[in-house]
Amino acid sequence: MKQSEMLIPTLRENPADAEIKSHQLLVRAGYIRQTASGIYSFLPLGKKVLKKVEEIVREEMDKAGAHEMLMPALQPSELWKESGRWDTFGPELMRLNDRHQREFALGATHEEVITSLIRDDINTYKKLPLVLYQIQTKFRDEKRPRFGLLRGREFMMKDAYSFHDSYESLDETYERIYNAYSNIFTRLGLNFRAVIADSGAMGGKDTHEFMVLSEVGEDTIAYSDESDYAANIEMAPVVTEYEKSDEPLKELEKVATPDQKTMAEVAEFLNHPLEKGLKSLMFKVDDRLVLVVTRGDHEVNDVKLKNLYQASVVELASEEETRKVMGAGFGSLGPIHVPDEVDVVADHAVKYAVNVSCGANEDGYHFLNVNPGRDFEVTQYADLRFIQEGDPSPDGRGTIQFARGIEVGHVFKLGTVYSESMKASFLDQNGKSNPMIMGCYGIGVSRTLAALVEQYHDENGITWPTHVAPFHVHLLALNVNKEEQKNLAESIYETLKKEGVDVLYDDRKERAGVKFADSDLIGIPLRITVGKRAGEGYVELKQRKSGEQTEVHVSELLTRVN
Ligand code: ATP
Ligand code: MG
Ligand code: MG
Ligand code: MG
């Protein structure tokens, strides 16, 4: 393709809001443009890479026995009401009305749509198992859209759903998709790790996240330096134990005031041994309310304070509601309504409560600085010790280390949460009706693209691995006003095209410096420069990633390129 005919608007400066490399480089190199906060257009280069990532995902999903389909992004509220998530998903779900004032959602995920589809068309074990997937736009009104494609409000997801007549069958498919994910991220050339996503409330083997290792990742992974153990620490308390306390913990009144105290002080008040790794204390106030005291770093009146605690109360859902939320799959832990004035630490406290105690909350269900004992009777408390660096690994092998990760994939055993609420059942061999057993499996395709750039760049731009690069070869004619350079470049361009080499030809009337800088920025793996020695038939061949550079005669070019 001729660069003069393409839309590749490169920029010399980083966009003001771009904090991380993938965001900066994808914008600067002309792959994406922001349309609104968390909403991006993919320009031709971006679309080409997206397609290549999608293709690898497709190939591996197909190999794993999944079948591609396409579901609507626009979904009637009735389905979400059936599953219960119209109420529990929270403000992340984009909602709108049609001209008849009927309510709709823009799909944040597709459990509801697929479950309603399957219940209408499948009713016997003979048709199970069934694994279906799609690659499609998802909408989530994220509280903090940021980091370019890493956390968008509109983004591309590959989402798959499986239906089974037994848990054994679910386990088999889960393993197959898990392996497909490993293949996908390996083929993409990503340095990643599969981690236990939730060992606390759900049992560690039922859900895994695929994490691309990166400093800009929003998750922290705890992994053993000697074994395969790896978990997302936010979701991996080592110990969750409830203890009975006859005292309604009157002492709590003293600690759960707006004063800031250290965790040691809190623990002392509670007469609780402060152990290494203790991050959070949870107190069961009654059947619906839990007080969470969290240790963390705060900023109070612009002063940074370390290791302070903050108290918040979270309302828990009933067990039934809880199952819906916990089994909600993609975004299941997303619907946390936190009023804007609540700071980050409180936000985490809510998350722990949600994860560990399976809470669902809604607007106004979360208060800062409530006074338990005065406002609620406290009946029970539990402690959560989270893994810290240097701890022994829970599997007994090795020591825990921390790393940051970007969640690019998530596999999840749903069980019968949706099939029960939405009445998707099948007749088994004995003619008995049972709810279908389900799994769901997501990959953030556009997030994966950004994760690739996080791992493949240098100070001059992107350094794509070959199989996802927008083109294989970048052909530069340094001075198109020089007849010999232009002619040689054109003939190389024609030959490469004829040979099926995916080539981008910089035929623009730009200075050599601009062409080199743009080429480094865009990051195509192989560069052919037609310059001063064009008359003798020599061109320069340069590997973008290694910087390795040689002079080659055109007669040898094809063998060197392929
Ligand atoms: P996160 O914890 O980052 O918010 P999630 O757990 O809510 O992600 P899932 O519901 O598991 O996401 O969705 C499946 C995949 O979709 C994720 O593993 C991630 O790769 C991708 N994804 C989720 N939210 C976004 C987003 N806002 N922008 C881009 N990709 C996303
Ligand atoms: Mg989320
Ligand atoms: Mg997540
Ligand atoms: Mg997830």
From TrEMBL:
The family database entries (InterPro entries) matched by this protein are listed as: aa-tRNA-synt_IIb, aa-tRNA-synth_II, aa-tRNA-synth_II/BPL/LPL, Anticodon-bd, Anticodon-bd_dom_sf, Pro-tRNA-ligase_IIa, Pro-tRNA-synth_IIa_bac-type, Pro-tRNA-Synthase_IIa_type1
Superkingdom of the organism of origin: Bacteria
List the keywords (alphabetical): Aminoacyl-tRNA synthetase, ATP-binding, Cytoplasm, Ligase, Nucleotide-binding, Protein biosynthesis
Q: Which GO terms describe its molecular function?
A: aminoacyl-tRNA deacylase activity; ATP binding; catalytic activity, acting on a protein; proline-tRNA ligase activity; transferase activity
Q: Where in the cell is it found?
A: Cytoplasm
**Has the keyword Nucleotide-binding been applied to this entry?**
yes
| Catalysis performed (reactions) | tRNA(Pro) + L-proline + ATP = L-prolyl-tRNA(Pro) + AMP + diphosphate
Q: What is its EC number?
A: 6.1.1.15
Please, one GO biological process term? prolyl-tRNA aminoacylation
Query: Residue ranges of the Aminoacyl-transfer RNA synthetases class-II family profile domain?
Result: 33-465
Cleaved signal peptide residues: none
Q: Name one GO cellular component term.
A: cytosol
| Pfam families attached to this UniProt entry | HGTP_anticodon, tRNA-synt_2b, tRNA_edit
Summarizing the function annotation, the protein's role is:
Catalyzes the attachment of proline to tRNA(Pro) in a two-step reaction: proline is first activated by ATP to form Pro-AMP and then transferred to the acceptor end of tRNA(Pro). As ProRS can inadvertently accommodate and process non-cognate amino acids such as alanine and cysteine, to avoid such errors it has two additional distinct editing activities against alanine. One activity is designated as 'pretransfer' editing and involves the tRNA(Pro)-independent hydrolysis of activated Ala-AMP.
Q: Which family does it belong to?
A: Belongs to the class-II aminoacyl-tRNA synthetase family. ProS type 1 subfamily.
Q: Which NCBIfam families match?
A: PRK09194.1, proS_fam_II
- How does the record comment on the protein's domains? Consists of three domains: the N-terminal catalytic domain, the editing domain and the C-terminal anticodon-binding domain.
Q: Subunit composition?
A: Homodimer.
What is this protein's name? Answer: Proline--tRNA ligase
What organism is the protein native to? Melghiribacillus thermohalophilus
Q: Which gene is the coding source of this polypeptide chain?
A: proS
